[in-house]
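Course assignment 3, question 2. Fill in each field.
Student: A.L.
Task: Predict the tertiary structure for the chain below.
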Amino acid sequence: MKNVILLGDSIRMQCQEPVGKKLADIATVSGPEENGRWSGYTLNSLRFWLPELPSPDLVQWNCGLWDMGDDYQEGRHFYPLDLYEETCHRICRILRKFTEKPDLKIVIATTTPTKHGDHEDIVLYNDILKKVAAEEDAVVNDLYSVVAPKKDEYIGEDLLHLTPPGIEAVSTQTAQIIRELL
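Answer field:
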């Protein structure tokens, strides 16, 4: 059996169990119990999470919405684009370094859309993720493209989290990509 680790925010948390069920014949899927929040939080937490999880054959991670937030009403993103890009590169490098697997398979999942306002920021941050993936020899799991065409069906009343059909769609794509890489 292969070991897969999923890291990321609450969207990852919604999908982890369904992805695990879809891959149960070939892999054990695990992840931290806590929300990965923003990229800097995930980066810092790797040193705590990874020793507690099985040695991975593949890691998928996502961070984005928290990075885009303006929680302190400063008129700026919590993690501006340049800091976000640097931190995302570091996540990939630290995953490979900490696991002592320079060829560790990494999948970076794009940020899903919301029902809040426009998605210009999400697209900008997802473009950074795609750039980082190309430069870090990682695979992109484009969850934005899965959810955006059906966001009214796939995003719930809180305007952010996935509905059961959304969880199914995201979990199916995630499991398919991981299965192909294992």
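Instructor remarks: Residues 174 and 180 are 10 Å apart (CA to CA). Strands lie at 2-8, 27-30, 58-62, 105-109, 139-141.
Grade: pending
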